[in-house]
Design brief:
This protein is an alpha/beta fold and about 375 residues long. It has a domain at about 80-315: Spore Coat Polysaccharide Biosynthesis Protein SpsA, Chain A, CATH 3.90.550. The chain has helices spanning about 1-75, 80-85, 95-105, 135-140, 180-195, 215-225, 270-280, 285-290, 300-310, 340-345, 375-385; strands at about 120-125, 145-150, 200-205, 210-215, 265-270, 320, 350-355, 355-360, 365. The strands form three sheets. Strands 2-1-3-5 form a four-stranded mixed β-sheet, with helices on both faces. A hairpin with a 2-residue loop joins strand 7 and strand 8 (about 355-360). Helix 3 packs across helix 5 (about 180-195) and helix 5 packs across helix 7. The relative contact order is 0.11. The structure holds 2-acetamido-2-deoxy-beta-D-glucopyranose (NAG) (5 copies). One 2-acetamido-2-deoxy-beta-D-glucopyranose binds near residues 255, 256 and 257.
């Protein structure tokens, strides 16, 4: 038994030795085979590499570099952000029909699935320069995220606001508009449509270059955001400058009993802004039958919104203006007019309804102010205007 075991071990040894000798003999051959295979692979790889670099390699390399850099300049966000992030550049090449169509999109689910901070859209309808811009800059300072700015000026006007200005790059694609003509309402609709593209804009106020705010931003923000009504001036004037401008061809789309007049300088909420941009019913009637001496910018929106959503209108404007001097144009105030006494006329002695309650705060903005009023206004603002 023992010898067998020894033998077996020895056999094993021997086998082991023999196999080792076999291995040591086979090793160079295997290495050679591997080497040849490796060399063949190297040659093949080189050939393929040269071939592919020649034909696709450089292109592939560049594409890879470009695509890896793309996130840096590709501003188009994916996901929900695409719908809630306002366009960073207001310049687009949409025609008016394209813009109005796009801006009329309304979500059917009313609850926003993200924390939405409602903003005021300040829409400036101007010929060109904004001489009172420094006052607006001061008024808006520190309230970023609660407002947006849009400026419609003559297409020929080149705006030149420094990057630090709130008006920098806030010019929308504009067209020539004439007072009292439909092109004026087109400009107002263009402002509304551009502002509607930002889902966070909730209240839309139309202003001119001669308008100023007469309260601090917080007061104005709260007044507008908490209002159940939109501040569209709309009254039924039985005289020649009211119902006298009505054209019977508008019937039955517009009945004379619905005919309204009001100041062009409106403030409306998002729902009414959409009513305005989506309108295809009243627009053709006003375009065709309300021409001077019917001044369409005094009648189109007040009448149309009275018919479509009269119960949402405060029927008064929040922009103070002085007609007391008489004539076709309201008074314009220059540097020498700007005194504390003057502002008492705006703040005191007014009565109006605010959310169905009596209020003495009726005007948030005022016009018309000449460029010469800027310096006195900046001086008086901290004490009188509250900013
Ligand atoms: C890659 O970038 C270069 C310059 O950086 C550019 O000329 C080329 O058009 C880009 N290619 C692609 C596919 O974007
Ligand atoms: C806007 O530009 C695109 C190409 O960038 C063009 O196809 C389209 O017709 C343009 N639209 C208008 C209204 O000019
Ligand atoms: C139109 O106005 C007249 C009064 O001029 C009134 O009698 C009539 O009911 C109104 N029609 C409609 C449809 O509102
Ligand atoms: C504004 O006028 C319309 C009718 O033209 C009326 O329905 C609405 O209640 C008025 N608004 C207020 C706040 O009184
Ligand atoms: C507002 O004040 C007037 C008196 O100036 C009063 O007749 C009226 O009832 C008041 N309205 C409300 C809603 O308080």
């Amino acid at each position: 038994m023992q010898s067998r075991v020894v033998l077996a071990v020895e056999e094993g040894k021997e086998n082991g030795i023999s196999s080792r000798t076999n291995q040591s003999k086979a090793l160079p051959l295997r290495l050679l085979k591997l080497l040849v295979l490796f060399l063949a692979l190297c040659v093949a790889f080189t050939v393929i590499s040269i071939y592919s670099i020649k034909h696709f390699g450089i292109q592939n390399l560049v594409t890879t570099v470009n695509s890896s850099f793309q996130p840096c300049y590709d501003e188009e966000p994916t996901g929900l952000e695409r719908y809630i992030k306002p366009p960073s550049n207001l310049i687009h090449n949409m025609s008016d029909p394209e813009l109005l169509w796009r801006s009329s999109f309304v979500p059917r689910i009313k609850k926003y699935p993200f924390p939405r901070v409602p903003k005021i859209a300040f829409m400036f309808l101007t010929k060109g320069p904004l001489p009172l811009a420094p006052l607006w800059e001061r008024f808006l300072k520190g309230h970023e995220g609660y407002y947006s700015i849009y400026v419609h000026s003559l297409p020929s006007f080149q705006a030149n606001f420094p990057p630090s200005s709130v008006f920098h790059n806030r010019q929308i694609p504009s067209q020539v508009s004439e007072w009292g003509r439909m092109s004026m309402c087109d400009a107002e609709r263009r402002l509304l449509a551009n502002a509607l593209l930002d889902i966070s804009n909730e209240r839309f106020i139309l202003l001119s270059e001669s308008c100023i705010p007469v309260y601090s931003f917080s007061v104005i923000y709260n007044y507008l955001m908490r209002s159940k009504y939109s501040f569209m001036g709309a009254f039924d004037d039985p005289g020649p400058y009211g119902r006298g401008r009505y054209n019977e061809n508008m019937f039955p789309v517009v009945n004379i009993t619905d005919w309204r007049k009001g100041s062009q300088w409106f403030e409306i909420n998002r729902k009414l802004a959409i009513n305005v941009v989506e309108d295809t019913t009243f627009y053709p009637k006003f375009e065709q039958y309300c021409r001077p001496a019917c001044y369409v910018d005094e009648h189109y929106f007040p009448t149309m919104l009275t018919i479509e959503a009269g119960n949402m209108l405060a029927n008064r404007s929040v922009t103070w203006v002085d007609w007391s001097r008489g004539g076709a144009h309201p008074a314009t105030f220059g540097g020498s007019d700007i005194t504390e006494e003057f502002f008492k006329r705006i703040y005191e002695g007014h009565r109006c309804l605010y959310n169905n309650r009596n209020s003495s705060v009726c005007f948030l903005f005022a016009r018309k102010f000449a460029p010469s009023a800027l310096e006195p206004l900046l001086h008086i603002a901290p004490k009188v205007l509250g900013f």
